[in-house]
Every structure is written in structure tokens, then in C-alpha cells.
Amino acid sequence: MRVDEWNVHPHHVWIKGGRPEKVVDYDDELKMWNIYGYPEAVEALTNPKVFSNDAGRLDPIDLDPDICAGDFAQMDPPQHRKVRGLADHAFLPDLMTSLEPRVIRLIHELVDDLADRDRFDLVKDFATPLPLTVIGELLGIPRSDLHLFHAWMHRMLDDTGDFEPPEAVLDQEEALKAGFALLYEMRDYWGGLAAERRRTPREDLISHLVHAEVEGERLTDSEVFNICNRLLINGHHTTSILIGNTMLCLDAFPDQAERVRADRSLVPSLVEECLRFFSPIAAVGRCTNVDVEVAGTVIPKDQVVMVWTGAANHDERQFENPHRLDAGRTPNAHLGFGRGVHFCIGRRLARMQGRAAVDILLDRLPGLRTDPDNPPTFYRIADAGGVDGLPVLVA
Length: 395
Fold this sequence. Notes:
The chain is of the alpha+beta class and 395 residues long.
């Protein structure tokens, strides 16, 4: 299936070779600024004194401050470093190495269940359950409860809405209310699990968090919840999209698929290239602490800014032939996992699972291809780039 046939989000014009008209522009309907260029995006992502992650202060509704407590994705240094340091415990390189045999076993188990089928949905039946199981085991979620998180993730994405509503501000407020109602529901679950781990610690991240201290104080249940929730989202959703996107890219670029099949040492660089070409995280939000000039345009203080990493990854000022998938592209300083202090915490785990999944799928299902009668479906929220359904055939 060719790239020009992909029904991607209409804002993602770069996927099909287009470019936004300006490097920086203002959306008067949504009251936010957009940054599309690569060097401009790097500056916004690496300068937290100017571009803050504490965008919640500009939300149109009053928030319970406790509901976001501990969410390091919404923190700036130095508090960000203190809290994120607790979560980094789960993603140390040595631990990722020790996890790889378990990941490989899980991949083979999933493929075993699919091997006698002539068609299936790669996202639903493989790319989603793999990272959900892995991050669930790291955190300490009982396997019998993983279906709850799968359902919550879908509700979270559905409630997020799009960036193009007819009544933008009203719809954003309603979407925020629905989103926070879901967060309260999830927090109740995490609170029960945290209480259990306080009584009976285990070798999992929840036990680590409930017994950890920041500046002499234990984390609250809300802080534990937000750290775990952030890790679940980063460790599951992004990886699921990465695997689906990579297999779809191989289908769309058969010359690169043959190249990788002939030289498996290219699998790691293929995964990096797919992170660039079809970034699972298409945009990240920031807000300005001061007036700042970007590409000759002044963005005032206290403005919401969307940094379009997906567009930046197709900036010809940084990447040669950016609209061409090159499985051996090097160097490849893409922004698929962000940049700066908020560089994706689960990047090592995502890369490891992505590489192993592609390698094993190429080995065990060599005839895998998209189903011409059932085209892939794509996320309809603008800041997520990728497939949420990928029907495939097995030759």
C-alpha cells in the first residue's frame, strides 16, 4: 500500500511530501502557536526556561492540583529531575538487556497464536498486547488486569478529541472534563495497588515507588499514580504505534523491505528511520514563560505552543530526501522520542521491542502484507502519528 493511499490525519501533510506554509504560525481558532521546523523544534524542546512543560496552568478549566501531582511530563527542572529519577530506575540499560529474552519469548508466543491464521490485525493482535504485557510486568500490574488498561487507553485517546472542533474552546473544555474523569477512575485502581504494595512489597516498580523518598518524604498515592500512568502510556502506546508503523512502512517501500531482509543488521537503523518518517509522537505541547522570537516571529508570554516533531523530522534543512524512507539512514538525529530533559523515558524499551518484533516477524511471517480489501486505520488525534488498526494477510 503506497504512502499516498494512507488515510493519515489531514494535518500531517509531511507524510505525503507536503510542508506547512510557515515554519511558525498561529491558529486563531484554537488559540495556539505551531512550530514546524527542525532547528526551531530543537530549541523549544531543549530550553525549559523559555518553553515550559507546565502547560496545565493555561487550561480553560480549574483543575484539582492533586490529580496531576507527580506527573514529571508536566514538570520543569529541578523538580522534574527529582521525580523522573525515581522512574528512571525501571529503564536502566542493564535492566533492558536482562529483559530482552523475556520480550523475545513473548513475541514468539504471540506469533504462535497467529501462525495458523491467514489474516489478522497486526495492531490489535500483536503490536498492542506485546508492549502492554511488558510494561505491565515492569510496573507490577496483574496480568489479569491488563485488559482494564487497554480499555482505559482507548477511552483516553477517544476523549482527547481532535485539534479541529467546530466550537474549539467549548469542545476542549468538555474533552478535558471527560479526560480528568477517566484519570480519577484510573487513580482509584492505582491507589488500591499502591496500598497492597506498601503492605507486601514485591520486585516491581510500584513497590519501588511507594517506598521511595523525595527530599525525605514519601510519594503520595496521586504521585505514584501519575508516575505509573505516565510510564504505562509511554511504555505501551508509543511502542505499539512504532511496531505497526514500521511494518506498514516496509509494506509501502518494498525496495527497503528487500534491503532489510537481505541484511538484518539494518533492522536497528530501520526502526530509527521509521521513528523519523512516521513519528508516533507527532507533536508535544509547551507554553511560553516569556516573550520569545522563533524564526523571526515573536510568540508572547503565556501562550500554548505545539512543537510538531513529525513535521520537524521531515525538514529538508536537517534530512536529505526527508520524504524518502532510507533503512540505512545515518546520521539520523530525529525527534521521534523528543529531545532535552523530557527525552522519552521508555526509549530503550521501545527500541528493544521494536527491533526484536520486526526481526521475528520477518523470520516467521515472511509473506506478511497489508490487506488490500481492509486498509489500515489511523489515529485521528493530531499529536499521535500512526496506525490504530492494520489488517494484514499471511501468504
